[in-house]
Structure prediction request, 795 residues.
Amino acid sequence: MDALFLARWQFAITTVYHFFFVPVTLGLSIAVAIMQTAYYRTGNESYKKMTKFWGKLFLINFAIGVVTGIVQEFQFGMNWSQYSRFMGDIFGAPLAIEALLAFFMESTFLGVWVFGWDKLPKKAHLASIWLVAVGSNLSAIWILAANSFMQQPVGYAIRNGRAEMTDFFALITNGHLWVQFPHVFFGAVATAGFLILSISAFQLVKKQKHEVFLKSFKFGAFYALVGSVLVILVGHNQAQYMIKIQPMKMAAAEALWNTENPAAMSLFTFGDEKNRKDVFAIKIPGALSFLAYNKFEGEVRGINQLQAEAEQKFGPGDYVPPVAISYWTFRIMVGAGFLMLLIAALSLYKAMKNRYELKPMMYKIVFWSMLLPVVANTTGWLFTEIARQPWTVFGLFQTAQSVSNTVSAGEVLFSLIAYTLIYAVLMVIMIKLMIKYASRNVDDIEAEEAEHTVLSNA
Amino acid sequence: MDLNIIWFILITILFIGFFFLEGFDYGVGILLPFLGKDDRSRRAVINTIGPHWDGNEVWLLTAGGASFAAFPNWYATMFSGFYLALVVMLLALIARGVAFEYRSKKEDKVWRTRWDWVIFISSFIPALLWGVAISNLIRGVPIDENMNFTGNFFTLLNPYSLVGGLASLALFTLHGALFLSLKLTDELLDNARKTAKKLWLPATVLLFAYVIYGYFETDMFSKLGVNPGVTPIIAGAALLSVGYLLKIQKEGWAFIMTALTITFSTITVFIGLFPRVMVSSLNPDWSLTIYNASSSPYTLQVMSIVALIFVPIVLGYQIWTYWVFRKRLSTKSKLEY
Prediction:
């Protein structure tokens, strides 16, 4: 085990873990803001209870999202110092701007929102949760601007032995950013929608048929459906874009060994990655061309040809990402997405018909569906990062060049173990708290609030 | 004045903001188990920083991000060089953030007591480590001609940096006690006042010892000549005055004075460093400076525009939050955390 290997594992573990919480923050902040807006507009107390109930779950999630994000910012310097030296001139800027523009805003106004319920005028208090929602999502845009540069480097020149920024606006108008952010955003909406839907189903079936959860169920189903439909549509758009800018990534996603025209889409491939051929495969002729170009013809380039092209361009080397992982993560993501669409549509249909008595089977499906977006988010990121290998910045800088040259394998191993342990402990604690607050009786919320003021512990 | 200097000043400002704000947050965390005797009073103590701690911590993240954007070689050398120290700091910051949010979410004595100690330890560690880190920046660490740190964890743990760590720990704790004396009432207020009085002398002795030690261990003061300059004198005088101000029960002024001590100590450190950002103990020519560690003029220009617009906005709304939550807390107040 060398430092590079361990640093890659550390990046994978800490990033995947961080991204369990990020989508919930992005999607739920807006959901809670919408609920509070409904309360502000109607004065209906059940919207206030709704805001408080989901707001608490939001906070439990938010705390871990924030602290695991700190590790992300420090990690580039700690484990990837060579990357930071080479890319810092460009990559540092969006990170710094994220902190200054977005992170300050979401953190400061979250404090205002949590502590300001009866210290601020209603309108100002409502504004604070919207600022949290806008801040969180702005923060996502800046982080994705940084990631988009890694996927599709723009607005730079190689000077003084490093990549230097030449056009800041190219960085934020990067085509990749504007296919990636919508995908992440609607994925987050779906994630929050399913969380609300699943927990509402749990409350309705197992606890209380309270108005708050009837409303929440309907809202969650709608939110999840909007998220699922749009995440699929913009995801399709993104894949078509990727065929143009990172054909190797999509060839790996399809296990397309050789260029085809028209290209067939793989439904199931069991392949031999070493010799780059199929052992067993079911394919739909022409379907991949259709997905790529909206017509049943058109060349989709394959792994072998792309490898040869890359060797010509960059010199000898292996430019093929791990195909099996790329292929399966991509399929799991897409599969989870379509399941989400189906379950969200079905749940919304039930809600519209006011049929909240879910049969045991249906209840189980709806309840566990909250994990589907988590699966899709995780496999989606694994795919997008792994299928970019061997590059950290596509076509410009490789992962093996990026790692810190002064950090020993032992040090990385120590930090890897330390983070993993503390993350595991936090996960257990968080899930326990989530369960506690998700199974709460909403009518007790007011009483609990009152308890904050009374000397209950004296 | 070129952009490199402007960015050096901006990062100094970010660190001042961070040490001033997180300084009292750390202090509050460190004093938590000792000031509050029962759960309700501990909650009051935590709630004094409840609405603010998260926003305060962003000053650090912004300082980190800004050093990445403006001086990537500084960021790369320091973060990879101070590796294990930073791992420890990160573990503390992770635990601390969660602890504030989770502590009062369960009516369970064991649960809450555990989190209280998590808050204590995870505030204690960074308060100490920041002094250690700053001391190493100015004392110098082994950096070779390629800007690579060639030492290890124990290189950073020298007597000078440890004294620096104790000085920052004591100063932040005093700063926290003074903050609490402005935010609490009744019995808790008395406790905060008494604690501040007790902390003043050790904090002053440690800081002055640290400064004197610095004459032998660093080139900071020789650079400044026999006359140490205005900034360290203001820092020292402000801290000395705290003793008197506490005696006449002017905590508000005392708090302003520790704030001045923190501000001017930070300025002193950065003036002493200038134009370096990290001193090489192997060869002065191998030090990282605001020129050899910096980004391109274009990036600095872009970042300057962003910073000049947004730093004042951030300052504006953060100050506003302190005004919104200006009311003192007691055990009878409505407590969120």
About this structure: Residues 13 and 420 of chain A are 8 Å apart (CA to CA). The mean pLDDT of chain A is 92. Chain A touches chain B through 75 residues (CB under 8 Å).
